[in-house]
Amino acid sequence: MAASLSTLLDVHFLVPQADTKRNPFITIRQKPNNRRLNITCNSSKSSSDQSQTLFESPNPNSPSLSDQLKPLSSTTLSTTNDPHAQLLSKPKSIWINPTKPRRYVLSLQRQKRSHFSHNPDVRDFKRFARKLNDSDYSESSFMSVLEQIPYPVTRENALFILNSLKPWQKTHLFFKWIKTHKLFPLETIFYNITMKSLRFGRQFELIEELANEMVSNEIELDNITYSTIITCAKRCNKFNKAVEWFERMYKTGLMPDEVTYSAILDVYGKLGKVEEALTLYERGIASGWKPDPVTYSILAKMFGESGDYDGVRYVLQEMKALGVQPNVIVYNTLIEATGKAGKPGMARSLFEEMLDSGFTPDEKTLTAVVKVYGKARWSKDAMELWEKMRSNKWPMDFILYNTLLNMCADLGLEEEAERLFEDMKGSEHCRPDSWSYTAMLNIYGSGGKADKAMLLFDEMSERAIDLNVMGCTCLIQCLGKAKRIDDLVRVFDLSVNKGVKPDDRLCGSLLSVVSLCEQISDASKVLSCLQKANSKLVALVKLVEEEQTNFETLKSEFRDVIRNTVVDARRPFCNCLIDICRSRNLHGRAHELLYLGTFYGLYPDLHHRTADEWSLDVRSLSVGAANTALEEWLGTLAKFVQRNEALPELFSAHTGAGTHKFSQGLANAFASHVKGLAAPFRHSENRAGSFVANREDLVDWVQSRIPSAVSP
DNA sequence: CTAGGGTTAG
């Protein structure tokens, strides 16, 4: 793929670069983040990441900036060879410099479609098409029905049938039938219609076969052919093929129109090649193209995928500059993109602007907005939105319902979720599915409502809705917290028997229950579940609990388990192991595990030091791990005090403010631990979720405890 | 899906 940019820029476009200096229209608009300066070949990173490449030496495979900016006149087609040369005389568009011949990367006129007329006998053919569609799948029975085709089989009738058939196999068979019977010459449109059907079946190989057949039979490939090929390749994730056919189009001298052009723009977007897409876009603009909303939807989606706020702003700015009005889809994409870029306020104003412009939001709009509000923890806005949805009778679908439920789970809105869930049960088209149940189990799990969770579990069996692995994880967490170990074992065994494949998160959940078990007998019941899912992890637990275990053995087994664990579950595993140690009074082992976790990079942001302040951030730690980390830290500080080394004015520990309704635990546990140690940390008044101590108090405290060491 | 491009869920 790395070659595409250079080929597009240097060979196939065969056009001079837009003169942005002389072009008053372009110069007023800024590319996001000065993108011009950091063109990279594989720009899948976000714009902020890309800034790192700003001063690096250029990739030898990618054209240098000056290469890209130099006029390509030496390699271009001459003006007179340009099939669209007449466009050069396009009268006084303000941004076209009339003294400078301009080359075009796309045709400003969309390919016209010839519409085929309906015959009087279309009714017969309609009936016959239905018969073919109802026929058996096999080639032989399709062909036997086909023998009864009404007459005359004119070009129009054949096109009508071709257009009506599905699935793709039947379209393809009928196409071959037309070909063998040679009733009339196969024009481009026959190929185009057939390819479209093949695209539904994602049959890229067959499409390519037809395209090559067109080339060898000298049947013209037009913009419709190319855009169909390109979008099929895209849907089959054959992006290199999409680019290849786009380049082939230029080679044959055919200009893409805006449909084909935006199709390839989307290919670059899907590849995360932001620079390339922008270059294409700008060259289109420089050709005098006024893109339609589809193009901006593609660009907005691309920026949304990388969470690029500057990019989203660029899209808005461009639309405004060119006077393109967004439609519902563009608004949907923009709202989604601003949400992903972490700008909920912007997303909300876009939504309001959309309503003010008289648009009715659809399911996708509302799903996007709900996600934004949930992520931003804007419960009030979310609930107001829900009321509006009901009173305006805006459309709902089950994805929107499930998104609302997930949002309630994130915000801890149990009653609201229950109301929604009841709504779903009473609805015709949005009955709760396994995702809905998972969201409810999540809510009950976080809220410690084991009874309600078990009722749902039973209800799922009655309704034959499968519990998925996440639902199982939530339920197990919930039952573990409620100390209902026998129910937990029953749920686990039933789920596994029904085909739930335990993943690392589920194992983490079981492990955390082990740390909560006060009775050895309970712990061993849970461990026997874990044994079936991850026996190595159980072996590690045994090793951790065994006082005789030497550190090197622990280290190598720990590394082994962590290496075979998905990244997201690694820190939770270590947290739980530490909690197990703390609950078994194995404090030394807990410190060893914290050391190993830090050593293997599971706690990368635990410590921060500036000249004025040293801080400890335990927000991603469990209670036991946080306490262990605090002890470790105080021990280190004590050594500093004893050695009379330079200390900052302020010390702080961050436990998080617990914005989540159910997540107050860490701060409370931390406070009581601090109290137990009589350490001089106090809740910070101006920083929620932080404990602070000043140097003087801390030094006094350490000295009062000397010579007894603070930490092991 | 009436020859071609864009949007929704842990």
Automatic annotation (TrEMBL):
Pfam families: PPR, PPR_2, PPR_3, PPR_long. Residues 616-699 form the Smr domain. PANTHER family: OS03G0856100 PROTEIN. Keywords: Repeat. It comes from the Eukaryota. GO terms for cellular component: chloroplast stroma. Residues 53-67 have a biased composition (Polar residues). Residues 36-85 are annotated as: Disordered. Residues 43-52 have a biased composition (Low complexity). Belongs to the PPR family. P subfamily. One of its GO terms (biological process) is positive regulation of translation. This is Smr domain-containing protein. The keyword 4Fe-4S does not apply.
